[in-house]
Amino acid sequence: MSLSSVKNFARHARYVMTENPVTALAALLFLLIVIAAVAGPALVPYDPMATDGGRALQPPSWDHWFGTDHLGRDVFSRVVVATRLDLMISLAAVAIAFVIGSAMGAVAGYFGGWADRITGRLLDTIMAFPLFVLAMGVVAAAGNTIENIVYATAIINLPFYARMARAEVNIRRHAGFVQAARLSGNGDWRILAQHIFPNTLPPMMVQISLNMGWAILNAAGLSFIGLGVRPPTPEWGIMVAEGANFIVSGEWWLAFFPGVALMLAVFTFNLLGDGLRDLVDPQRRT
């Protein structure tokens, strides 16, 4: 990528941010999430794994901003450190689903025939199950490790990209610019990879952003029911599950702050979708 291309992309990104303040807010929240994920363990005031029975179940204070849990662990430190794990699970799962799903859908939409029929039946099989129940089944059968949570989340997100890529490629495969590329001597795979597929990315950027939020919710949901990340690893779903046992007795902060962090993460990715679409849309780069 040349220096001029980088400058043009930066100028376009600045235009998108200034045109839509909501996108700028989402970008700011996303930056905070990334900072917490990358530098969180170095920034927190306490060891998130250290226990101290003498300070158990303390409410929020200047010493412990989010209070402490039933083992005396600092809730703020655990919420911040948990950002890295939840974001890694979400990024890995969505990346796998996007790469495999978009490739399957693009091939099915361009070539049709047996590729289209086989892909369609496979996606119909996945979509026949309630997606969270399917993720539960995959993790329960394969074991509740982080890798299996990523694979299960990727599997349930696969149909979204495959169907969207198929529809977008199928619409464009007879377009004028495709015919021009074919008359210029380009083969089918080159046309698909360099001419058609880049034009399918804008709508898929919105789907990627939405799926990032859903992937975090899925990982937290699996942890909440005991099929996700295992304690004592800091993770938002586990923290909400542990805190739910103490809400009745008045220790509201145990579930409240991890729940707020989870909500803000999903909210951020939902808002970020339109901005990502505008950034990669060729029609908006004028």
From TrEMBL:
Signal peptide: none annotated. Its main location: membrane. It is a multi-pass membrane protein. CDD domains: TM_PBP2. It comes from Alloalcanivorax balearicus MACL04. This is Dipeptide transport system permease. The chain crosses the membrane at residues 21-44, 87-110, 122-143, 149-165, 212-232, 252-272. Residues 83-273 form the ABC transmembrane type-1 domain. It holds the Pfam family OppC_N. It is found in: Cell membrane. It comes from the Bacteria. Keywords: Cell membrane, Membrane, Transmembrane, Transmembrane helix, Transport. The keyword Membrane applies. Belongs to the binding-protein-dependent transport system permease family.
